[in-house]
Amino acid sequence: QRMRNYRECRSDIDKLNTPFLEIYESLVPPEEEKAKQRHLIASLEKLVNSEWPGAQLYLYGSCANSFGVSKSDIDVCLAIEEPDINKKELIEKLAEIFEANNLENVKALTRARVPIVKLMDPESGISCDICVNNVLAVINTKLLRDYAQIDGRLRQLAFLVKHWAKSRGVNETYRGTLSSYAYVLMCIHFLQRRRPAILPCLQEMEPTYIVNVDDIQCAFFDKVENLRDFGAGNNESIAYLLWAFFDYWAHRHDYANSVISVRTGSIISKRAKDWTRRIGNDRHLICIEDPFETSHDLGRIVDKFTIKTLLEEFDRAADVMQYDPDPCVTLFEPY
Ligand code: ATP
Ligand code: MG
Hints:
- The chain is an alpha+beta fold.
- It folds into 2 domains: about 15-25 and about 150-330, Poly(a)-polymerase, middle domain (Orthogonal Bundle); about 30-135, Beta Polymerase, domain 2 (2-Layer Sandwich), CATH 3.30.460.
- It is about 40% helix and about 15% strand.
- The chain contains 10 helices and 10 strands.
- The protein has helices spanning about 15-25, 30-50, 85-100, 135-150, 150-165, 180-190, 240-250, 270-275, 305-325, 325-330, and strands spanning about 55-60, 75-80, 105-110, 115-120, 125-130, 210-215, 215-220, 260, 265-270, 285-290.
- The protein has a 5-stranded mixed sheet with strand order 1-2-5-4-3, with helices on both faces. A 3-stranded mixed sheet has the order 9-8-10. A two-stranded antiparallel sheet has the order 6-7.
- β8 and β9 form a beta hairpin.
- α7 (about 240-250) crosses α9 (about 305-325).
- It is globular and about 60 Å long.
- Magnesium ion binds near residues 61, 62, 72 and 75.
């Protein structure tokens, strides 16, 4: 049983607020980087339109969900309405077009779970991955971006958590640790559960945005400009929240029985989702429900070895936040 008695936060926690906020500021991409990305998308869209006039390019992932650090690669989705679309052929055709127009490192990855074409724009130095008709990714990007506009502490917390995860080598899905998307959902859920709450549950409110994707209905309240004061009743500082976040994942989360769910703003039971045992390659050792694809556990790639690594890292981070004289340095030390 991993749960321990409540421990109180160190008394000097708020002294750490300024240095943590400085780290956050240093990670935020400058405005000119965003402008370069938009410029690249516009010129790629022109190339694509020469072949498919109605097609559109959307940014998704960290360059559009407001949780992207400076100099990340960008994720792009091509939205195209064509009957009987063959994604593999389409990806190959795209690669041909880009290659013929001076883009570099062009590569069609047609056998991946999500087929993509990769490229690098020599003018801006930006690399991007382009997928086809991945509408849910564009919608979950919007959900994350909308949450970020409600309370600034979400973006600060998520940047620090992602920075920690990258520094400590636990943000590598191909090795069995968690995706950035999963970490951001963990942060949203955590802030929904503070008392008083810092974030609402947008999917439980009267929907103002409704889109159907295949058999999944995506519906949530998206007039977030009306929710700017939502978290005002809670004045927990970012240093305190970071401490509490790691304390939660190191000592309080019930890994055996609980699923975190941003969709409901609550914890649901593994039993209710039938996520109690290994099915195929899905082991459900840490359970994070996707807000729209609710049968999808973002923790399913975590195995019996990497769950240990994750728990050790949560423990270490919680201890650093509790006892270390200089957590702003020690927390992010390379592993
Ligand atoms: P990074 O800064 O590390 O690139 P990111 O926000 O781009 O972070 P990724 O994990 O690379 O995060 O994912 C990119 C986007 O792809 C996510 O924002 C999300 O829209 C979508 N995505 C990623 N993983 C999943 C998943 N397992 N299920 C559904 N959508 C996902
Ligand atoms: Mg990305």
